[in-house]
Amino acid sequence: MSEQTRDYVLGEHPELPAPDQRSGFVKWAMENLFSSIGNSVVTIVGLYILYLVIPPFIQWAIIDSVVLGAESRRECQAINPDGACWAFIYRRWDQFVYGFYPAPERWRVNLSFVFVAIIIAIALVEKLRAIKGAIWVALALVAACAILIVGGMFGLDRVPTNKFGGFMLTLIIGLTGIFASLPIGIVLALSRLSSLPIFSIFATIFIEFIRGVPLITLLFIASTLLSYFLPPGTNFDLLVRVLIMVTLFSAAYLAEVIRGGLAAIPRGQYEAADALGLSYWKSMRLIILPQALKISIPGIVSSFIGLFKDTTLVLIIGLLDPLGIGQAAIADVKWIALSNELYVFIALFFFVFCFSMSRYSLYLERKLHTGHKR
Amino acid sequence: MSEDFAIKINQMHKWYGDFHVLRDINLEVKKGEIIVVCGPSGSGKSTLIRCINRLEEHQQGDIIVDGIELTNDVKKIDEVRREVGMCFQHFNLFPHLTILENCTLAPIWVRGTPKAEAEEIAMGFLEKVKIPEQAAKYPGQLSGGQQQRVAIARSLCMKPRIMLFDEPTSALDPEMIKEVLDVMTDLANEGMTMICVTHEMGFAKQVADRVIFMDAGQIIEENVPTEFFDNPQNERTKLFLSQILH
Ligand SMILES: Nc1ncnc2c1ncn2[C@@H]1O[C@H](COP(=O)(O)OP(=O)(O)O)[C@@H](O)[C@H]1O
Ligand SMILES: [Mg+2]
């Protein structure tokens, strides 16, 4: 190598191999964990704390745990008194997934899960979205899910919404909120920035009202107060009211996140779009919103994650989300007071969904990055 | 009356709030004419040419572009904008779209040109500004000079009859100025009607039919380039020229 570098003629530099950019774990650890005495102390203390916490947890959750072969808490303890009693989750699995949805009809929910997976794939995978008519397929699937789950049509028995529960309910509320609040949030953000006072005043009042009130309060309004305003005798389903409230709540937050993104777009972008003769809606759709939404991705996804977790609040107005199902379950004498298992399990469920959303947002940010701004 | 004029501005005034930014502007631009506008910073040059495609609204007087009078009528504004291309000091390319998409966007969405045809036209203009090989890149990956040439190509893809340039070279490094001016010179030689706000006096001498000098919102002096540079009449013009030409 040294010969290569010595031999060059002036003005004719040989091509040198790029410096080695691989870094082994040892090198990485030396640079990041043990770069100074203070750093090393922090690293060692941190490792010690992990050592105190993780092995006992694994012991409890996996090694000593009981999944099969137990019908009650007592039987769990008979098998292994030190481990987690996952048999509880296992025996109650159907309730955690479907709530009190009638067992013979649960295939409808399962089919809907498949449809939802397809809808999400269409929404997230660009190649699928690009296929002509994909949006209509997705909308048709949304309608199909609603018909399947609620029933009362096409020979399907009507299942009252108060039988809905568990993860199915979380997904219904979370996904409806996510997909419905994004377009509403965009419209609210554009209205708030509109030069027409009717739009901006309405949007501002709406956003500030919703943001100024806790979601729980809105849910109580949905469950009780609304019946005073609605004409007597109208049976406006509680779940529908909750869906509307959750969607509006999320939309108000999204509107502010998107407004921030819109404010970051330089005026020159609007002017260039105008100068080319694009109408307001076309320039919004083709030029401004794609850029504003891209900037807003981290905020939008945070909002969605918050919304997804907030779905657990519906248990307060009597809907049986997984937490509600679980609390009822640990009140059962057979499984009395298995709260550790319950909350670890539910935490895991929410973590998987929220962490996936967070990773997807990072992936999206990286994919949409198109070089530096000037 | 407007037949032989590409642009006719008649006793036009504009205010920003209380600030009288353009005062009694009268200007007639013939088809195929090249006008260079110069003047000190803040004299209203940008505002003037932005009134021509209604990026700014004037409050008094008339502006007639390609036979269409600019009023609040949105249809007419759109009609004018389709015929008038504009290049900005900071290029204002769309950073989320490729060079080719930047160029085909308006033809497809404003004129309804089929995509394949729009791409063919766009490639033609990218060749004309000598960067067809960059078509698949994003604006952030190009140099300033290249970006400005793309911006010119993007405007040309709408097949405008009039081109407005607002200091197209003043954000560029010196070695890139020439590549942009060359493209503009070619365009001028092909008979495009152009209004250029620029302080590139070499360009003005070479291609301009008339040079206009603005100060404090007014057109102070207007002449053919040779007379304008060699024999300025107004004191302020003389001062300005001595400052930029040394
Ligand atoms: N949007 C605006 N609001 C208020 N004043 C403005 C605005 N744009 C420009 N001005 C003022 O108008 C004057 C003319 O601006 P401009 O046309 O940009 O000048 P030039 O292009 O000749 O440098 C300047 O004094 C500037 O500060
Ligand atoms: Mg200017």
From TrEMBL, chain B:
The name this protein goes by in its record: ABC transporter ATP-binding protein
Domain ABC transporter: 7-241
GO-annotated molecular function: ABC-type amino acid transporter activity; ATP binding; ATP hydrolysis activity
PANTHER family, per database record: AMINO ACID IMPORT ATP-BINDING PROTEIN, PHOSPHONATES IMPORT ATP-BINDING PROTEIN PHNC
The keyword Nucleus is assigned to this record: no
SUPFAM superfamilies the UniProt entry points to: P-loop containing nucleoside triphosphate hydrolases
Annotated organism of origin: OCS116 cluster bacterium
Annotated family: Belongs to the ABC transporter superfamily.
Entry keywords, A to Z: ATP-binding, Nucleotide-binding, Transport
InterPro entries cross-referenced by the UniProt entry: AAA+_ATPase, ABC_ATPase_HisP-typ, ABC_transporter-like_ATP-bd, ABC_transporter-like_CS, MetN_ABC_transporter-like, P-loop_NTPase
Pfam families: ABC_tran (PF00005)
Signal sequence interval, chain numbering: none
Lineage, broadest ranks: Bacteria, Pseudomonadati, Pseudomonadota, Alphaproteobacteria, OCS116 cluster
